[in-house]
Structures are given as structure tokens and as C-alpha cells.
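Obj.: predict assembly geometry.
Materials: sequence records (below).
Method: joint structure prediction, all chains together.
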Amino acid sequence: MKKVTTEPTQSTEERIMAAGREVFTKKGFAATRTRDIAEAAGINLALLNYYFRSKKKLFDLVMIGKLQSFFGFIGPIIYNDKTSLETKIEMIVSSYTSLLMENPDLPYFILGEARNNPELMLNAMPKKDFLKKSAFIRQLANKKTGQDPYQFLLSILGMIIFPFLMKPIFKTLTNTNDAKFKQMMIQRVKLIPNWCKAMLRAS
Amino acid sequence: MKKVTTEPTQSTEERIMAAGREVFTKKGFAATRTRDIAEAAGINLALLNYYFRSKKKLFDLVMIGKLQSFFGFIGPIIYNDKTSLETKIEMIVSSYTSLLMENPDLPYFILGEARNNPELMLNAMPKKDFLKKSAFIRQLANKKTGQDPYQFLLSILGMIIFPFLMKPIFKTLTNTNDAKFKQMMIQRVKLIPNWCKAMLRAS
DNA sequence: GTCTATAGAGGGATAGAC
DNA sequence: GTCTATCCCTCTATAGAC
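Observations (raw C-alpha cells):
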């Protein structure tokens, strides 16, 4: 377990938090040992408990932050009445892709811990019916294609997020290196909105 | 931990194996306790070690089986020179959807354990360049859309598999119950191939 | 605040009776 | 083959010195 690269000015608490984010995100709650976090933070194990009381409490703090980065930026996009559906799709694709290129372990972590703790999602949501009441879903429904807008949403998200989930398998199966994979993800920022337009016309 | 529903004629070994499949798939390797498996199998903990030597050895056997069910059926579909690209897409969508409706925890399990053990995938593959040499990839490339066929493949798989990964979050966010979700997945068996046709025309 | 040392619980594995 | 009892290591958490 390598030491996390941290600003020298970071406080001990921040360094433990950063290490917690790194290790928990990569290995999940169960497979993570507090010793790994302490080592990654370059501190003694006792300090973790001194600052955060327990493994679980640190984990919960990490989780809250991750949920916010995963769901936080999408609100302003899908609730914007001024932008067209096409523009929203482009923004969602490019924002999520940037986020996931920076945090490749994020989706697996979120999906996994959501399985153990589905209600946690609700608390992370700004409000009830967060999706349902959005301009994005309304605009999709107004296309009058007779289709469930959520079906379309699942497909967009799948096209954006799934490649990052499949990355380890994909790299192995297709002999793709990191640079090539990154390049593919950048290409998808253009590809996916085009595909979406075609899908909307078709349905 | 409830007892696994098993045939009364199953041998003890088979019952432990079935319980292992269930618990490992649901919770992953690290979060699974051998005691959970023993309880689910309705046997004593010592018998697990008697039949399988260790937790890890049982896990590996479970993993091999899961990999085969996840990758096994796709070979005959994508290597069939007689079927059209469109037919292959329909077959992939419907086969995978059936599989995942029966085994909703399967994709998360496969993706997760593949992170820890990427080389494992290679051993599960029938041969080197399994994808690359398939009729499916060749047919996609022959579309001469100037596009990387793997980009398209990632999208299809994302549309099929991602909803199952997102199921817990999706149900919470949209107040969808199991019956409704299942119905949506069945609808997607028709929707996805149509979308794919539109995407291929577009690109 | 930060360390060392250790308590205490949990869980994988085995010995040995039946 | 199947059970009970238990070993022993690992890991979380804390006590207490500095």
C-alpha cells in the first residue's frame, strides 16, 4: 500500500480522510483494513480512531462525499429549463466522462455500497422525485415517442458509465492499454450524443 | 442468512457449492464468512473445509462457474458466420437479459472480482483474441462507418447490463418495484436492438 | 497529537469424537 | 461423513506513555 500523494500542508485529519477515500474506493468496505488506510496516510493506526472514532464512521464520511460527487453536478444540468434536450445530453455525457476519467473506481464503489444500503441514496438526493420532476425527464417525455423516458435514461447512463466498470475486463480481452482506453472514452463524448439523437429519432 | 432452497437429493457437497454460489455472488469474497455459507447450506462449518479445503478454493470454483455462465453462451452467437449482424444483436440482447433476470447479482460479482484478478478473465476465455476474431466484430467493422467496433460493443453491453447493476439505485430513485423493473427489462429486449439499428445507421 | 502495546472480537481452519 | 470444541491468526479499537 503506497503512501497517498498529499499536499505537505494537509492536516493529519485531511491526510487520513484522503487515504480513506483512496483505499475504500478501491477495495470496498469489507476488504479494506484500517491498517491499509493508516499506512497510506503515513500515520499510526491509533490516529485513525483518534480522529474518526471507527472504521465505519470514516467510511460513512467518505461515502457522503462520493455520493455528492456522483450525483451533485447532475442536478443543475437536468433542472435547467433553458437548455435543449440535446444540449443536456451532451452536458451529461461530457461531465460524467470527465468525472469518471478522474475517478475510475467511483461507479463500482457507488453501485456496490448502494446494494448494501439502498436508503442511503435517498438521503443523498436533494429532494424526493429528484429525477421525475426534472426538465430532462419532462423533455424526454415530450418527445411523444410513446416510450418510457427512464428506458432512455438507463441506456445513456449505461453507455457512459459501463465502460468504466468493464475497464479491467475490456483491457484484458482486447489488449487495450490505459492510453488507448482513455482515448476511447474521449471519443465517446462525441459518439454517445450522436447515438442518442439517432435513438430518439428511431423510437 | 436463510437456508438455500435445494433439491433434497443434492449431495452435501452440492449443497455447500450452491450455498457458496449464493453467498459469494451476493456479498463478494471479502464480505462473505464461511459461517454464512455453512448456515445457508444447512451444514456444519467443518464440512466446508472437509469438502473444499478452504474458503478461497471454494470461491475459485464458484468463480469459474460464474465466468462460464457469463461468457459461455456468447461464443456460439458471435462466431456464427450464418447469422446477420442484426440477428446477432437480437440474440445477444435476449440471451443476456434472460441470464441476468435469473442472476441479477452476476454482473456486479464478475466485474468486481475481475478488478482483483484481471488475468482470471483470460483463463476463462476459450482462446486468445476471442472477441477480435469473431464474426460479430468483423461484421461490425464491415459496416465501414469508420468507427471502432469496440465502441459499439461497449454501448450494447452497457445498455443490456448496466440497468441490472443500477437496479438498487434505480428502484430507490424512481419508486420502481420488482415487477415493474422486470417488465422494463423485458421491454428492453425489443428496444435495444431497434436503438442499435438506429445507431448503426447514424454513424 | 502522536506513538507503542495490547485488549478483545471475529473468523478461517483443524483435531478428534462419533 | 458429520459433528463439537477449539486453536490461532488477523483486525478493530483502546489504554496509557510521551
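Conclusions so far: The mean pLDDT of chain B is 93.
To do: check interface contacts against the pulldown list.
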